[in-house]
Design a protein that fits this description.
Layout (H helix, E strand, L loop, with lengths): L5 E4 L6 H12 L2 E4 H14 L7 H9 L3 E4 L6 E4 L2 E2 L7 H11 L2 H15 L4 E5 L2 H5 L5 E6 L2 H14 L6 H17 L12 E4 L5 H17 L4
Parallel strand pairs: 1-6, 1-7, 2-6, 7-8
Antiparallel strand pairs: 3-4, 4-5
Helix pairs in contact: 1-9, 2-4, 4-8, 7-8
Bound molecules: 2'-deoxycytidine-5'-monophosphate.
The site of 2'-deoxycytidine-5'-monophosphate (DC) has 14 residues, from helix 2, helix 4 and helix 8.
């Protein structure tokens, strides 16, 4: 397939990263998980004892970080100044603080610049919240993936149960609804569907079904030529 850029946005736990990785693999494209970048900054901040309210210190910390995303077997490997932080960035503490860090405009500017650099060569599937609206406004295909809060909480619950992590479904529902609220209401690049994005509601759909739908859309985007 001709190299094009695919933007996948949507709320927490909509299945973006699993689907984006699968689509990238099938097309031989590079997958970029931008949420992992916000998570890596948050993890480092927590490690360094800097709370999300200390914005200036956070920006200084983030500007000195080297974040690398490497293709991995089950998920993308995340290196922070050379250290593998792939598992650490999925902790409950990071989940609870990442929205506040991602709401800081200077942090977004830093990370968006890195993301745009990665998208330059085309052939990228990038997932996040503002990819179609800010990071790759010229992407040939934009998808807005969503599912009900209940279904998203159930999916996360099963994932965490498989990892023997102890958390209740009710707590996950609350956390997901709260993250949606923060991501949608923040001033800097809030989560919103780009006008030209295709809405895909994944409630009741399996991961391969969602990936197939996106691959179909990618083929027709290619057919229309690169913008
Ligand atoms: O997709 P995720 O759950 O790993 O994202 C973690 C947080 O980062 C989430 O609160 C939204 C934020 N985020 C963002 O603001 N912009 C992005 N492009 C990606 C993630």
């Amino acid at each position: 397939m001709e190299k094009l850029n695919i933007a996948i946005d949507g709320p927490a736990a909509a299945g973006k990263s699993t689907v984006a990785r699968l689509v990238a693999k099938q097309l031989g494209f590079i997958y970029v998980d931008t949420g992992a970048m916000y998570r890596a900054v948050t993890w480092k901040a927590l490690q360094s004892g800097i709370s999300p309210e200390r914005k200036e210190d956070l920006v200084q910390l983030a500007s000195a970080l080297r974040i690398e995303l490497l293709p991995g077997e089950a998920s993308q490997q995340v290196l922070l100044n050379g250290e593998d932080v792939t598992d650490f960035i999925r902790s409950v503490a990071v989940n609870q603080n990442v929205s506040a860090v991602a709401a800081i405009p200077e942090i977004r500017r830093l990370l968006v610049a890195k993301q745009q650099e990665m998208a330059k060569a085309k052939g990228v599937v990038m997932d996040g919240r503002d990819i179609g609206t800010h990071v790759m406004p010229d992407a040939e295909l934009k998808i807005f993936l969503t599912a009900s809060v209940k279904e998203r909480a159930e999916r996360r619950f099963l994932e965490m149960k498989a990892k023997h992590e102890n958390v209740s479904l009710e707590q996950l529902e609350k956390e997901i609804a709260e993250r949606d609220r923060m991501d949608e209401q923040r001033e800097a690049s809030p989560l919103v569907k780009a006008a030209d994005a295709v809405l895909v509601d994944t409630s009741g759909m399996s991961i391969p079904q969602v990936a197939d739908r996106i691959l179909e859309l990618a083929k027709s985007a290619e057919g229309k030529g690169i913008r």
